[in-house]
Specification:
- The chain is mainly alpha-helical.
- The protein has helices spanning about 30-40, 40-65, 80-95, and strands at about 10, 70-75.
- Helix content is about 40%, strand content about 5%.
- A two-stranded parallel sheet has the order 1-2.
């Protein structure tokens, strides 16, 4: 279900699901094989760019208004492939310009 403590939620269930590829099913979005598969999908790249652009623009404004933290959730059906891949990529990209970015995966633990 949707996390109750999230300030922003991005639903990525519309993206191609590696779960339906037998060789990727038991892996996660942290695995290179899944990253290669998802990274090669035009819709995944477009979703990443849209979310990154939004966060890169608006997170500094949240910080400027004295918000001490913002919790961002990225969700998909199983919480193992698409959301993990995108959360990892977003975290890496946002760390280039923002401080104290933490990435956690609720459904991998």
């Amino acid at each position: 279900g949707m996390p109750v403590d999230a300030d922003l939620v991005f639903d990525v269930r519309c993206l191609p699901n590696p779960y339906w590829k037998a060789d990727l099913r038991n892996l996660s979005g942290k695995d290179p094989e899944v990253a290669e598969y998802l990274g090669g999908q035009a819709d995944v790249e477009e979703m990443f760019e849209d979310i990154f652009s939004y966060l890169n623009k608006w997170l500094p404004r949240f910080a400027a208004s004295n918000r001490s933290y913002v919790t961002i959730a990225v969700g998909c059906t199983g919480g193992h492939h698409r959301s993990v891949y995108l959360a990892e990529r977003l975290g890496t990209a946002l760390k280039q310009t923002l401080k104290n970015i933490q990435v956690r995966h609720r459904d991998l633990e």
